[in-house]
Structures are given as C-alpha cells and as structure tokens.
Amino acid sequence: MAGAGQLMFARRLGPTARLIIWLLVGVVCIVLDTRFRALDGLRGGLSVMLQPVREVTRAPTEVASELSGFFVRHRMLQKERDALADAQVRLRVELDAAADLARENAQLRALLQLDASPGRKMVAASLLYQGHDWFAQRITLDRGARAGLHEGLPAIDGLGLLGQLSRVYPGTSEVTLVSNPGQLTPIYIERTGQRGLAAGSGQGRMELRYMPLHTDVRAGDRLLTSGIDRIYPSGIPVARVLRVTRPQAGPYLRIECQPLAGIQSVRTVLVLTSVSGETAR
Fold it and tell me: For residue 124, what are the contacts with CB-CB under 8 A and spacing of at least 6?
C-alpha cells in the first residue's frame, strides 16, 4: 500500500506531452537567446569544451592533405630535376661541340695562312685515323696519289712540321710523324742558328742528337727545319727544347724536345707538294 503523501497510481507523462514540453522549452530558449542573448555564455563554454574534439576529428584530414601535397610536390620536383638534368646534358654536348668547332676553326685559319705563303703549293687532307699501333707514330690521311701526292713529301699543320709521307695509295696516304723513332729531321736552333739533327724518341717526343757539350742550347729554344736535306723547306717550326742534361760521361748533350705540331690532336693537314724560293740554313 502507498504511504502517506504518496499517490497509489502515479502516471507518467506521455510522449506527446514530453514533446510539447521540450518544444516549449526550445521556443523559450530561442526567444531568450534572440532577445536577450542569454545563451552566449553556454554556447561559448560548449565551444571551448568541444574544441579538442574538433581538433582530433580534423587531424586525419589535415595529415592526409599534407601527405598528398608532399607527394605531389615531390613528383613535381623530380620532374623538374629530370628536366634540368636533361637540359644540362644537352648544354654540355652543345658546349663541347662549340669548343670542338672553335679548335677546328683555329686550325683551319692557321692552315689558310700557311696556304697563302708565296712559292708553296699544298694539298689539304683530313685525318682518317691514327693507325692501329700508336706506338709506331703514324697517321693516315684521306688524300693519296689521285691528289698528286707521293712518298717523301712533308706534312704540316698550323703549328709546325708533322712528318713525312711514307706510303701513298690511290685514295689514302700514311704520314710518319716526326716523333717516330726512325724519323730524322735536319734543324737549326732559332736563337743561335746552330744546326743539328732531331730524331723521334716515341711517345710524342723528340731528341736533339750529337750536340757537343759546349753547344749553346737551353730549355725553351725553338727548332726549325734547316732545309739542308732538300726535303723539308727551311724555317718550318719543328720542336721546342724541354730540358738539357749534361752527362758525366759522354761527348754529347742529352736534349729532350716537344714537337710543336699537334701530332695527337691534328685533324686537317697540308702536304707540301712543291716549294720554291727558299734556301737552306
């Protein structure tokens, strides 16, 4: 049984009544917030309380966005790097080609000046290859007997004497370089006029032989063809003295020389077919 002050049959409010009550409460809150801004404090408090929740829920989206942007930028940087690398390679190739053309033009200008020398008739030829055995110090040219060449003719470039034609074929010819151990070149020292005999020593070098110990020769002296052999015209640069050694035993100086012609870099050669008006030194 119900005690004193208690209803025996207590009835709960129905759903419709509760809905109406909550609607009335909501309307009252709206009116109070609109007219008197009574819920600003409550709204601010709830905003502060829910801020960490918003940060946590927004974090995965921001991380995903940052990662996506990172990979996009990474791919773009890789493409830019590859493009720059390709451009660098192309520029390097163009630069090498330009430098190569500049060297070839310098050689051609020097050859044109030689070609204009009075009394000289020349045949221009290009290098085919340096030969299978570089130790033999020979090169092969693309002109031969059909161009009027024959064995024994001297070959020069814009810097000096290269050597002498040793074999001539119809369309090609072989030049034995001045640095060949079997090649002898009569020369004179430009500074003093002293005559001598230069011989190849292999490996792109020469030596001045049979010079007595009292001979006035020093490093830096230029050696020119003397023309005494009637093969090479007089005055063609041959080599420059590198060092002079006085042996303790022996009657001759040891003189090492460097050929002036570009025996390892030549591309275009002039073959002297006839020379007039030059006397031996």
Answer: 111, 115, 143, 268, 269, 270, 271
Q: What number of H helices and E strands is found in the chain?
A: 2, 12
Mean pLDDT of 159-174: 92
pTM for the full model? 0.60
Bridge-partner residues for 212, per DSSP?
A: 252
How distant is the alpha carbon of residue 255 from its chain centre?
37
Which token pair is 270?
A: 């002039």
Task: Count CB neighbours of 38 within 10 A.
Answer: 13
CA angle 130, 121, 105 (to 5 degrees): 55
122-275, which class in CATH? mainly beta
With beta carbons less than 8 A apart as the criterion, state whether 268 and 101 touch.
Answer: no
Extended beta strands in the chain, E state: 120-129, 138-141, 154-156, 161-168, 173-177, 184-189, 195-202, 205-209, 222-225, 237-245, 254-259, 268-275
Model confidence pLDDT, tens digit, residues 230-252: 888 888 899 999 999 988 888 99
Q: Which residue has the tokens 């000289």?
A: 120
CA-CA distance, 210 to 254, in Å (whole number)? 9
